[in-house]
Amino acid sequence: MKIVQLATEFAPLAKAGGLGEVVIGLSKELLRQGHTVEVILPKYDCIDMKSLEQVRLSIPDFKCSEKGASHANALWQGFFQKVPLSLVEARHASGYFHRGKIYGCDDDIARFLYFSKAAIEILSLRREVIDVLHLHDWPVAIAAVLARDFYNLPIRSIVLTVHNAAYQGLCASWDLDAIGLNGLKYLVPEKLQDNSPDKPSLINLLKGGVVYADAVVAVSPQYAKEMVTPEAGYGLQKTFLKYRKKIFGFLNGLDQDLWNPEKDSFLVAPYGSKDSYKQVCEAKELMRAFLRDKCTLSSSGRPWVGAVTRLAIQKGPELIEEAFYETLQMGGTFLLLGSPSSPDIEQHFRALQEKEKNNPHLFLCLEYNEALAHQIYASLDFLIIPSLYEPCGLSQMIAMRYGTIPIARATGGHKDTIFPSNGFLFSDFTKKSVRRGLQTAFSLFQRDPSSIEILVKNAMQIDWSWKKPTEQYVEIYNKSLTLELKSP
Ligand code: ADP
């Protein structure tokens, strides 16, 4: 099968969260299972082209029009860990992909509409038959509309993965005009008009992807159930309900090469699921000694709790704050690696950071830091994930692979991956519930170390590889090629 994926992240070259890991993990396994894969990405300034193999300028100049003007672009191709990558270099006056970040610019809508159009232009220039065009989230959802209504490409089916339905790409109809679509034509309930009665003049790009795709994948079975409710559908629940026959839910895998404590170059001592519990604890202790030095933390022998997360409303920043004070209260050490997603949240946590800068049992790092993330996962006893909602969540899987027990709110993918045999779930999105979750874990840690050993051993044995999820994707690709699922 020939599969082309359009995405705005690809780990580790351009990663903001779990999406980028899904794209590389799935691509590698699709290749291993004998399929032909290509990933098309924006050529961001953060991408280190030296880490690609066999880089070549495959199309030195192709045009993409926006607001009636024609803009120059180039296409670079190369391989990353054998995955064929195509990078769209937009030589656009607005420097769309030279912002030092992936998301969070005022013109994100224009940037990603432009990228989607440029990617479809490439497919149009090639005019090769593609079995599946696989799209990821709102930034590239418009490609389904462009491919079907505007370019009439030889694409046999379109699959959309919804990684997070809360991010929908709301824009005006004239934003679609800018890339040559007639925006008003799409501003109708059965196409891209936002479902909210107070926003009837808005276009909803994610909705467009759901309407136009032949199949839609939600990133966990539980999330597929939750997204048809107002709490997780964020206004799109009616659309998800309407198209439920073409929506499928299954878990993401984990890239076993990116996350492997046996071969992780960021760790001071390798360890793995075949090691004894004693060896795992020794390796973790060495990691803690390293971090105590690096993060000026003191004293050993305390339980270590932490969070590695985007600091966004979804992740419950106020509950994370509660978790670190409760951990300190109970005599533990807490490490937070959090990338703030808004100026308000950043300001709040910077103030906490300043206030606690001399606290020897608390480390707050407010940035995105890949190496530190690996080191923190390896050092912890417990990872706290109090999410408001969690479509799949990779961090609990990573934690378990590194012998760290998740304490998580029972929502979305947490419910599909965390059980009494490998972690702790708490039900309410409240401070009290977080405290209870931590207290249960701490009490077991102190009272009954042998049950913690069992949890750690169980957690480390789980196979989170991409093999099964990829087989499930291939099944959906095959289904999406059949007539019954074809989009209207
Ligand atoms: P989401 O995609 O919603 O952010 P996931 O749990 O699916 O959440 O994936 C998050 C990924 O991003 C994990 O690999 C996690 O380790 C990583 N991550 C999150 N925040 C940071 C950070 N501040 N620094 C480094 N890595 C981070």
Any overview of this molecule?
The chain has 2 domains: 267 residues, Glycogen Phosphorylase B (Rossmann fold), CATH 3.40.50; 187 residues, Glycogen Phosphorylase B (Rossmann fold), CATH 3.40.50. The chain has a 9-stranded mixed beta sheet, sandwiched between helices. A 6-stranded parallel beta sheet has the order 14-13-12-15-16-17, with helices on both faces. It has 18 helices and 17 strands. The protein is α/β, with parallel strands linked by helices. The protein is globular, with a radius of gyration of 23 Å. The structure holds adenosine-5'-diphosphate.
What is the count of helical runs?
Answer: 18
Tell me, briefly, the overall form: globular
The name CATH uses for the topology of the largest domain is Rossmann fold
Pick out the low-confidence regions. Answer: none
Assess the beta-strand content as a share of residues: 15-25%
Euclidean distance between termini CA atoms = 24 Å
**Strand order, sheet with most strands:** 3-4-5-2-1-6-7-10-11
Rg on CA atoms, Å? 23 Å
What ligand species are in this complex? adenosine-5'-diphosphate
Number of strands: 17
At the first level of CATH, what is the class of the largest domain?
A: Alpha Beta
